[in-house]
Fold this protein.
Amino acid sequence: MPQYKYHAVTLNGSQQSGRLEAATETQLSQLLFQRGLYLTSSRLMERSRRQRKIKLGRIADFCRQLAAMLSSGITLIRAIQIIEARDELAFTKKIYANLVEELRRGSTLSESMAKQGKAFPELLVNMMRAGENSGGIDTTALKMAETYDKQNRLNSKIRSAMIYPIILLVLIVLVIIVMFAFVVPTFGEMFPEESELPLPTVIMMSISNFLLNYWYVLAGGVVALAFILTTVFRRPKPKWFWHRLKLHSPVFGKLLRIIYTARFARTLSSLYTSGIPMIQALTIGRSTIGNTYIEGQFDTVLTELGNGRALSDALSNVEGFDTKLYATVAIGEESGRLEMMLDSVADQFDYESEIATQRLVSILEPVMIVIMAVVVLLVIISVLLPIFSMYSSLG
């Protein structure tokens, strides 16, 4: 529900200000009147950019339960009340309670969902609006449950595949800390201060001393660097450059192209089959890709499509999608089965993204193990070199 910042006066003329949630300014005035306050001015507060979103798994469950209850004859308000009662998370329970409140005021489901900020995906809001126009909210909800199920399953598989490389990365960091904080200083005490040590040993000892004596500088530097990078890459131009760089990276580029293509194809298929015009479907679909470099190229696509150019030709100029998408769209346009071809190619790309993720992990695992072995080897060499030198001098 929108939040207003208000200024009001009491009966004795004293001023009061604060913030209050209300659907409209009229309702705000009524709520203040009940408290003995008279509204003088108000301003709608902007929603926080970091407002929480409902996770895909819960969105899929919400759509599935909604479809099942609506198809059974349960009213919309009662269905959402049941979903709210069954939910265990306080955040989503509040969102569902807000939906019920908005529906009772006469808002449609899509309008009620849109008023919850970023809690519901834009795609779902537009699909529900299309379902309301066609009179098939239950059918639309079931279709969106399947869509979000597939998307959530793919994301879960990618996260699961990356767990082992992350564990290896943590182990590498721990090994480096143990080596430089405990092993290297222990061996350093064996050598006299006036002895000349080999260059690799001097470097290792210097790194070890820095970590032991100035670890807080390193920690502060890492935090500051992370903060600077996060702040910089939130700006449009650096973010555009970074998203473009990711697509052209030698290791992750191909995987990201497949994931973006699958996401766009499934979104476009869902919108197009619901009767949403193609230009509007492309406008909504571009916002679900998750890459600003690709999204920025859709202005040209929409212009060309408005000038009568075929969808496959317009999309062929977008850099960042897999070339199979353009060929599939062309076949769908020629055969008149575009929605079916889009859904089919999305399934194919989901499978290919799983295979590509597994291949990526199979490459990362030995690389990270080799990195760990190289670090340990360098430390061992830096320790053994002065020992060999001492033995040689004694000989």
